[in-house]
Design a protein that fits this description.
The complex is a heterotrimer of chains A (258), B (577) and C (178). Chain A is an alpha/beta fold. Chain A has eight helices and six strands; from the N terminus they run αβαββαβαβαβααα. In chain A, β3, α3 and β4 form a beta-alpha-beta unit. The chains are: A alpha/beta (258), B alpha+beta (577), C alpha+beta (178).
Chain lengths: 258, 577, 178
């Protein structure tokens, strides 16, 4: 299979990128961007497009999306590089004049994304081309797109940094709400998720479990009632009451068995 | 294999009528849900049965599914899924699937396409992916598989290969055989590369006589990503939502819902009412951004770029609505089997309602300006006619068919989520042209607002997710939604171990592409981009346009950009230079 | 035409200030998943849930290390990892500025120590996960001696445990015959 990847070590890559960016600066004009959709879902296309519409207006920075690779300074690859798109993508790449900055855009462009190991794709843009910049996201938002281009052009600094943690001796995990019986906690968390989903549910359960730290059922009941009185959202009242019911039931059960 | 399901009143009638006509050729009747039935028929009767259901029982072809069932019953199978809408009454409409078993030692079946043209792409698809041959099919070319894929190697056969296997490319060139139009002088236009608003790539070839399009041919499926096999092998039930969502970046949530509903129908799972409402809200939010997008594009193609930019500015508000409701602008990721992942609380509801009021006001003003632009009528009326007969034969969907006067809308025909509990109007137009399709979308935006308002203010109490159910293996069903571009239908069969046995998603554009050829014929070349954009294809422009001049016998390649410019400006024909 | 001009004038400038001012995202926006190493027990729930395989686990049984890895370049920001994590070790943040020149900068990696089996002396289970399981048992109110029992059991690899079980069964079955 034909690809345009070269075996380069890290320092060579860095040098090439530096040269490219310097050349772009020397050209001293707006930066033209050409997109190649390598079989993506259009999510990335539509967000790149949103980035040049009035609200985000990437053209403020002279970033202009052009219709031909021959005008391009930056070439953006989206999509997981499907088999039929490899050859057209290579043609577009070769048509763009040097120096060109190659951007892999979106999860698919960066690595093949959710499709990464399927028979129908080759993987990210770097399966075929040497890539200079990766913009992750599925799809990247228009702001992320602007940030990405600004990083590519040296206007903003890269924020991401590789992370590597190594476990030392005696590291331990903080247990959630150690004073609340674990069975009860699980039941409350589960009900909150069933009613409100994982994101709201977790916040609601954590808020409620704070009350349970009080231990004294009457105090808990009082605090819950105060909360419900102040709450303006009828849905939240419903959810808190259902969760509170679990606690009250467990208290009754405990009283019954005692 | 299927569980006991009682057919709904009215649905049985169609089965009885088919039985009366075909008798012993109908081997088995199985109901998957009260409005979904599968009839297994004798292989040789397949075309007749499908034709009867299609033309004489008010059927439309929604999907065709190939399946490798050799490990289940020793055969391959083909399923023709028809939506029977004869009486236009949701209580009487059914999904009728005609199934036939294909012997593995002679993988052939009689093609349905000569009798029902709507099957034309589907049968090529089945041939590519399963190596089951539709005997008598008029088009021997590949559809889904790329040019560089080895011959006689069919990826969706269960025993063909690992889902990760990537055969070496057999060629470094594009070898697709475009049709040849006979006639004097030929100009071939390849409709050009990926322009600013483009979505998927594809390759178009237009045949023109002077400035008039005589015929068109296209090579799509540049996006075949192998997601069906991926889903069968790598992903579990709750992961496929996220893959389904990435079938299309514009109407992904609709795909995610269609998938979810297919599973829920197959295993007979009830979804809580609040989740149904939330799903409806998210579906309509997605339709809102998509319809504004298409209206914007319509402005662009008729040369009204100010309107285009204004509409895109307004569209951002609908993106913000999605972000508030789901945490993401585009890929909502909100479904699980049995419900949704996130509730809508008062804060969110109030913010969304406020944003929506803004969108309504602005869209209203923009539509008012647009319909008072003489250019709109001048450029779109009578252009890109989708003849009612062509429409009937090819089963297009969504605003494309509603612009030709057919009252087809899955939300009304086979109601799902909360669509049967909130009031809304089904919009149709009679013009058959680009204008009609544009106006359908414009009017539908108002329906979106009323659905959203109603759903947001009347969300029922209770949970948003059911848990603790089990998946039963080898059950199948369809899930179908009305996406912004028309019906998205997913056919699915369950398997053991948290996996699907077969999943066949079908996007709305799949049914809208084949009619394009007919819609282009007889139009001037400068209107081609406009016509293509009017079906709002899951891509509004194409890789290349080759124009073939029928008179001068000269093929000429014009960059799409140039053609689009010509479409907007209407001067300096690129054919003349 | 007049209407349109009026509209344009009325709208004025719509463009956001970003990147000169921070861009606001909605609460609950699904941005960069932030990893909290302290809280992670390397149980792998997130790797099973991740639809894109952006999160992966690998084991080095020679050196006794289990490696958890998140590749932001493959992440689809669905938040399933956050949803299934039992210890709140991963949460999606509002951060979206993820562009990077090098792929290495898109990787978050964590190495966990593995415990050795008491019987065969081979690495098999992460120490942190084991300690967490035991701590949960204590929290659930299991008496001290019972927790010690369980610990003894959990410090044996599944293979050895099976062997022990077989021995026990043999005894149970054959003893009455003698």
């Amino acid at each position: 299979m034909i690809t345009l990847n070269q075996e380069l070590d890290a320092s060579q890559k860095e040098k090439i990128l530096e040269l490219k960016l310097r050349l772009l600066k020397l050209i001293r004009r707006s930066v033209y961007v050409y997109r190649v959709d390598c079989g993506g879902c259009n999510g990335c296309e539509i967000e790149i497009f949103a980035a040049i519409t009035p609200l985000f207006d990437a053209e403020r920075f002279g970033i202009k999306v052009v219709g031909s690779p021959r005008h391009a300074d930056v070439i953006v690859f989206t999509g997981p590089m499907t088999r039929p798109m490899r050859v057209p993508a290579i043609r577009a790449y070769q048509a763009a004049p040097d120096p060109k900055v190659v951007v892999a855009y979106g999860a698919c462009g960066c690595s093949g994304g959710i499709f990464h190991d399927s028979y129908g794709v080759w993987g990210g843009a770097d399966s075929v081309f040497p890539v200079d910049l990766y913009i992750p996201g599925c799809p990247p938002t228009p702001c992320a797109t602007i940030h990405g281009f600004a990083v590519a052009l040296g206007l903003l600094h890269q924020k991401m940094k590789g992370e590597h943690y190594v476990e030392g001796e005696g590291a331990g995990v903080r247990l959630k709400f150690p004073e609340v019986p674990i069975g009860l906690r699980k039941e409350i968390e589960r009900e909150a998720r069933r009613l409100c989903g994982y994101w709201h549910g977790r916040q609601i359960a954590n808020q409620y479990l704070e009350f349970l730290a009080e231990k004294d059922p009457q105090k808990v009941d009082k605090r819950v009632k105060e909360l419900l009185k102040a709450e303006k959202d009828a849905r939240l009242v419903e959810v808190f009451m259902k969760i509170h019911r679990i606690f009250l039931d467990s208290m009754e059960r405990a009283a019954g068995s005692a | 294999m299927q569980h006991e399901v009682k057919p709904e009143q009215g649905g049985k009638k169609h089965v009885d009528a088919l039985r009366a006509k075909f008798g012993a050729a109908i081997l088995e009747e199985a109901w998957q849900t009260p409005d979904q039935v599968t009839l297994t028929v004798d292989l040789n009767s397949l075309p007749e049965v499908v034709e009867e259901a299609y033309y004489r029982q008010g059927g439309w072809l929604s999907s065709v599914v190939g399946n490798d069932e050799r490990s289940l019953n020793g055969h391959f199978a083909v399923y023709y899924v028809l939506s029977i809408e004869e009486e236009r009454d949701p209580r009487k409409n059914i999904w009728l699937t005609v199934k036939a078993l294909v012997p593995p030692d002679k993988p052939e079946f009689p093609s349905v396409t000569p009798r029902v043209p709507a099957a034309i792409w589907y049968e090529r698809d089945v041939r590519d992916l399963f190596g089951i041959h539709p005997v008598g099919h008029p088009d021997p070319r590949r559809l889904a598989l790329p040019d560089d894929w080895p011959e006689n190697f069919h990826p969706l056969r269960k025993d063909a290969m690992d889902y990760r296997y990537r055969p070496e490319p057999t060629t470094e060139e594009e070898t697709f055989d475009f049709i040849e139009v006979e006639g004097e002088g030929l100009v071939e236009i390849p409709l050009g590369p990926l322009h600013v608003t483009s979505d998927e790539p594809g390759h178009f070839r237009l045949f023109v006589d002077g400035e008039t399009v005589v015929d068109a041919d296209y090579r799509l499926f540049y996006c075949h990503r192998g997601l069906e096999k991926l889903a069968e092998n790598r992903l579990d039930y709750d992961q496929i939502h996220f893959l389904a969502e990435r079938i299309c970046g514009i109407c992904g949530y609709h795909h995610s819902i269609a998938y979810t509903m297919a599973v829920e129908n197959a295993i007979g799972l009830e979804v809580p009412p609040r989740a149904q409402y939330i799903r409806t809200i998210l579906l309509e939010t997605e339709r809102l951004h998509s319809h504004i997008l298409n209206l914007g594009l319509a402005c662009h193609f008729i040369g009204f770029d100010t309107g285009f930019m204004q509409l895109f500015r307004v569209r951002e508000k609908s993106m913000e609505m999605a972000e508030i409701l789901t945490g993401a602008r585009k890929t909502y990721g909100m479904n699980l089997i049995g419900g949704v992942r996130k509730d809508i609380l008062k804060d969110e509801r109030d913010r969304v309602l406020a944003l929506m009021a803004g969108v309504r006001k602005e869209v209203d003003e923009m539509i008012d300006i647009l319909v008072n632009t003489p250019n709109l009528f001048h450029r779109t009326q009578g252009v890109g006619i989708l003849d009612r007969k062509v429409a009937r034969d090819l089963s297009p969907v969504g605003p494309t068919i509603r612009g030709s006067g057919y009252r087809r809308d899955t939300r009304a025909d086979h109601p799902y989520c909360a669509y049967d509990r909130v009031p809304w109007k089904l919009i149709t137009q009679e013009g058959n042209d680009v204008l009609a399709r544009t106006l359908v979308r414009a009017s539908e935006i108002y329906e979106i607002f009323s659905i959203l308002e109603k759903c947001l203010s009347e969300m029922p109490d209770g949970p948003i997710l059911v848990e603790g159910f089990t998946y039963k293996p080898h059950r199948w069903a369809v899930g179908c939604v009305e996406a912004p571009r028309g019906e998205d239908i997913h056919w699915l069969m369950t398997d053991n171990n948290q996996k699907v046995y077969r999943w066949r998603p079908r996007a709305s554009s799949y049914n809208n592409w084949p009619p394009i050829r007919y819609m282009l014929r007889g139009n001037v070349i400068s209107n081609a981009p406009l016509i293509v954009a009017s079906i709002d294809p899951c891509y509004s422009c194409t890789e290349r346009v080759t124009v073939i001049d029928v008179r001068k016998k000269k093929a000429k390649t014009i960059p799409y950009q140039e053609l689009e410019r010509y479409c907007r400006e209407q001067k300096d024909s690129p054919l003349k230079s | 035409m007049i209407k349109l001009l009026k509209k344009v004038l009325q709208v004025g400038e719509a463009t956001l200030k970003y990147p000169f001012a921070p861009a606001e995202v909605a609460p609950g926006f699904r941005g960069k998943p932030v990893y909290n190493f302290e809280q992670c027990i390397s149980c792998g729930a997130c790797t099973l849930a991740c639809p894109a395989n952006a999160i992966t686990l690998s084991c080095d049984l020679e050196r006794g290390i289990r490696t958890w890895q998140l590749f932001y370049g493959r992440c689809i920001f669905c938040g399933r990892c956050e949803e299934v994590c039992p210890t709140e070790a991963i949460t999606l943040s509002p951060e979206f500025e993820l562009a990077a020149f090098k792929k290495e900068d898109l990787v978050c990696r964590a190495d966990f120590r593995l415990n050795k089996c008491r019987f065969c002396d081979r690495f098999f289970t992460p120490a942190k996960e084991l300690e967490y399981v035991l701590a949960v048992m204590v929290q659930a109110g299991l008496p001290e001696p019972e927790v010690a029992n369980r610990r003894a059991l959990l410090e044996v690899c599944p293979e050895c445990r099976r062997k022990v079980e077989v021995e026990k069964m043999k005894k149970a079955v054959f003893t009455p015959l003698e």
